Amino acid sequence: MGEGISDYTKFCIDLRRHMWMAGVEMELRRLIWQIAVTGKYISAKIHESNRKLAGFKNIYGEEQLSLDRSADTILKNQLQFSGFVREYASEEQDAVVHIGEGSEKYFVTADPLDGSSLVDSNLSIGTIIGIHNGSMMGDGRNTIVAALYITYGPLITMVYSAGKGTHEFVLNREGEYVLSQENIRLKKRGYIYCLGGLRKDWTQSHLQFVEYLEAEGYTLRYSGGFVPDINQLLIKNGGVFTYPALKKNPNGKLRLLFELQPMAFLMEQAGGSATDGKKNILDIPVDDIGQRSPIYIGSHFEVEKARAFLEKA
Ligand code: AFP
Question: Domains plus CATH for the chain?
Fold first, then answer.
């Protein structure tokens, strides 16, 4: 990919053209395109939102803005239209939703609006999508064929991979997603660390890993939004994000299907990796759609270092 694209014409490459040039299969192309367009509708909803809409609880008992529900409904309806999606699983739904006729190839997972609690303080938030072929259960490595996220920040950006590298697009003023970074590559070792969970709840081995990073002079960057935090690692080309096992919650906080698998796929496609401390995130079997897992994700060096510290425990 990339051959034959001059620096000049690169500026004009929109998402559809990019996927076509990269040889992404037609149905998958159309599906990714449709989801990217849906990001514009979700963004419009965020703009018209009112902070006073807080107060609902999602199926995990967490407070959510009604914005989460709106984003979920918008996404589900758009996917239903596409004709390519058999099942839809969302962090906002308590069960998988059958939206196709039964013969469609793709199964879509979504965290429609991750980090919605950051809306009132005007920090970046995002939509996370996984696209699976044949099934969404089991281990992600056998089923996931594409992943993307959309960031709603000072700019709206979309980062996708369909298994041919990880690429970033920016939504321009004309409403087109224009290529901004092709084939994002993580350095083997970065300098940023993002730490989820409270220090008092960390396990001894995780604490030792963090102390190692601190002693090495890593820079702390943590927004509390998974999408912008992962985006920062990809765009700054390295570092590590962790949301570890906690003393009271050995599976951590983040959800495998909706949050971790898509990000692990994007990260691996950019030359990074993701583990729960023992297994690669994409090799962990999913038995339940709400399943959680600890995560260490980012540059190879830091992720392997984390594995080494956790192995000692
Ligand atoms: P919500 O889904 O409840 O908004 O939580 C956001 C999030 O899932 C993810 O975006 C962050 O990485 C993580 O939680 C932050 O959690 P802490 O508030 O415990 O640091």
Answer: 7-181 (3.30.540.10), 192-311 (3.40.190.80)
**What torsion, rounded to 10 degrees, do the Cα atoms 119, 61, 289, 145 define?**
0
Predicted TM-score (pTM) of this structure: 0.92
Ligand 1 cavity residues, CB under 6 Å: 62, 114-117, 196, 224-226, 229, 253-254
Residue among 125, 128, 194, 226 whose CB has most ligand 1 atoms within 8 A, to mutate: 226
Residue with tokens 């220090």: 199
pLDDT by residue (tens digit) across 118-155?
A: 888 889 999 999 999 999 998 999 999 999 999 999 99
**CA-198 nearest atom, ligand 1:** 19
Give strand pairing partners of 63: 57
pLDDT band at 8 (very low <50, low <70, confident <90, very high): very low
